[in-house]
Specification:
The complex is a heterodimer of chains A (204) and B (261). Chain A is mainly β. Chain A has a single domain, classed as Aromatic compound dioxygenase (Protocatechuate 3,4-Dioxygenase, subunit A, Sandwich). Helix content of chain A is 6%, strand content 26%. Chain A has an eight-stranded mixed β-sheet with strand order 3-2-5-6-7-8-1-4. In chain A, a hairpin with a 6-residue loop joins strand 7 and strand 8 (186-192). Chain A is globular and about 40 Å long. The longest helix of chain B is centred in the N-terminal third of the chain and has 9 residues, at 16-24. Helix content of chain B is 9%, strand content 25%. Chain B is mainly β and 261 residues long. In chain B, the strands form three sheets. In chain B, strands 2, 3, 4, 5, 8, 9, 10, 11 and 12 form a nine-stranded mixed β-sheet that branches. Chain B is built from four helices and 14 strands. Chain B has a single domain, classed as Protocatechuate 3,4-Dioxygenase, subunit A (Sandwich), CATH 2.60.130. Classes of the chains: A mainly beta (204), B mainly beta (261). At the A-B interface, helix 1, helix 2, strand 5 and strand 9 of A face helix 1, strand 1, helix 2, strand 3 and strand 4 of B. The complex binds fe (ii) ion (FE2). Fe (ii) ion (FE2) binds next to strand 8 of chain B. Fe (ii) ion (FE2) binds at residues 176, 179, 181 of chain B.
Chain lengths: 204, 261
């Protein structure tokens, strides 16, 4: 029997005032409950506490000051807080795995406090390298941009099926560098919409 | 059927059959030719922000088939009522409206427990935002930020003030039709969508470059809410209906049997 699929509603840009809806405190509105979403993991969460710093750049080399960045990740043991993951119920209660950040509206700097995720199984049963899924919403983006952040100090990057699909010179656009020394270990990555360092974006 | 039964998956990760089942749960490919092009010259801001390289098509792994789960515990009172949630010392100014509808997947199934977030300008077309400088005044009793979670059939419902049109920096004399921004999650990272809702009959719709970045009239119509007098609150609010379709699974599982498709 032929099945007619409904058409997905078209996307539209989140626009310059996206913060009102997604990060009201950044727009200058009163902070609501459950709003500190750049803190992805709490003290009970399995995994190494890290900071993830992202700098967003447009094709003219200007910082993207008005985006909202969302992250989605597993905990330190590679478990997603979702009904598809059979180990979901073992996850600490202070970890949802979802985060959202705005900049100070002057710079392109976006930061998350989280844990380094563990390896997650691919559909073929093989493990992927640790990674955080990333979505960017902003003025001038008619549809969100999707990519992943990998970690420079992970040997398993060499066997990751997604990184393997990327030509070697562009892989580094998805690999965050680790900075140690004082306080929480920090991973940093520049995201470029265009240019010689253009980030690899996905059709998911 | 509980709210996640079409998603629930149980069994050891090493079980190959289960791995195949999970693969079958992948979402329909996004039909990008029916979405606005990333690079649309009529919308100037896309010029420096649209990627130039082709997107990399990746398989949907556990990272894309999962996504944040929200519930009613995430909401505060009046989050779904923008007539009330920004009030300081009185009612906000403007046309009082209800916006309601259903969030569906491409198979026509209502999506329960999905977070719907909305934001908008006030009746004069002014946003409450640090970077906004349009000369229309702020309404001291209107914030313009709301959210709700769909019910077990995928229905959602807001009360708000009808937003005004506003000018924007694009080309000279560019105006946005009245609109409400909508953000939706659906069951997975792959189903995430942000769109805008327009109002039936607004003459600014056909001349807006953001709208016209959508390639066809059917797409524009899908973003246009219709007056729905059956849902009015008499002597109080007019109602508009806006249904939203998110990507659906390639194969539906019902009590562990594939169904259709
Ligand atoms: Fe807007």
């Amino acid at each position: 029997m032929p099945v007619t699929l409904l058409r997905e509603t078209p996307s539209q840009t989140a626009g310059p005032y996206v913060h009102i809806g997604l990060v009201p405190s950044a727009a200058g509105l009163q902070t609501r409950t459950q709003e500190n979403l750049h803190v992805v993991a709490g003290p009970q969460t399995e995994g190494e506490a890290i900071k993830l710093e992202l700098n967003l750049w447009d094709g003219g080399g200007a910082p993207i000051v008005d985006a909202v960045v969302e992250v989605w990740q597993a905990d330190g043991k590679g478990r997603y807080r979702h009904p598809l993951d059979p180990r979901s119920s073992e996850i600490a209660s202070d970890f949802r795995g979802f985060g959202r950040a705005a900049s100070d509206l002057k710079s392109g700097y976006y930061v998350f406090e989280t844990v380094k995720p563990g390896r997650v199984e691919n559909i073929d049963g093989k493990l992927m390298a640790p990674h955080i899924s990333l979505t960017l919403f902003a003025r001038g983006m008619n549809l969100q941009l999707n990519t992943r952040v990998y970690f420079a100090d992970e040997a398993s990057n060499d066997e990751d099926p997604i990184l393997a699909m990327v030509p070697p010179p562009r892989r580094r656009t998805m690999i965050a560098e680790r900075k140690d020394g004082g306080g929480t270990p920090t991973y940093t990555l520049d995201i470029h919409c265009q240019g010689p360092k253009e980030t690899v974006f996905f059709d998911v | 059927m509980n709210e996640h039964s079409h998603l629930s998956w149980a069994g050891p990760l090493t079980d190959r059959r289960n791995a195949q089942e999970r693969y079958a749960r992948a979402y329909q490919p996004r039909e990008r030719h029916l979405h606005p092009a990333a690079d649309f010259p009529g919308y100037k801001s896309t010029i420096a922000r649209a990627p130039k390289q082709a997107l990399l098509s990746i398989p949907q792994t556990m990272s894309e088939l999962t996504g944040p789960v929200f519930g009613h515990n995430d909401l505060a009172p009046h989050d779904d009522d923008m007539i009330v949630n920004g009030q300081v010392d009185g009612e906000p100014i403007g046309e009082r409206i209800i916006v309601h509808g259903r969030v569906l997947d491409q198979n026509g199934r209502g999506l329960p427990n999905t977070l719907v977030e909305v934001w908008q300008a006030n009746a004069g077309g002014r946003y409450r935002h640090k970077l906004e400088d349009y000369l229309a005044p702020l309404d001291p009793n209107f914030g313009g930020c709301g959210r709700c979670v769909t019910d077990e059939d995928g229905n959602y419902h807001f009360r708000t003030i009808r937003p005004g049109a506003y000018p924007w920096r694009n080309y000279r004399n560019s105006w946005r039709p009245a609109h409400i921004h909508f953000s939706l999650f659906g069951p997975a990272f792959a189903t995430r969508l942000i769109t805008q809702m327009y109002f039936e009959g607004d003459p600014l719709i056909p001349i807006c470059p953001i709208v016209n970045a959508v390639p066809d009239k059917a797409g524009v119509d899908a973003m246009t809410a219709l007056l729905d007098t059956t849902a009015n609150t008499p002597h109080d609010c007019l109602a508009y209906r806006f249904d939203i379709v998110l990507r659906g699974p390639r194969q539906i599982f019902f009590e562990n049997r594939p169904e259709g498709l």
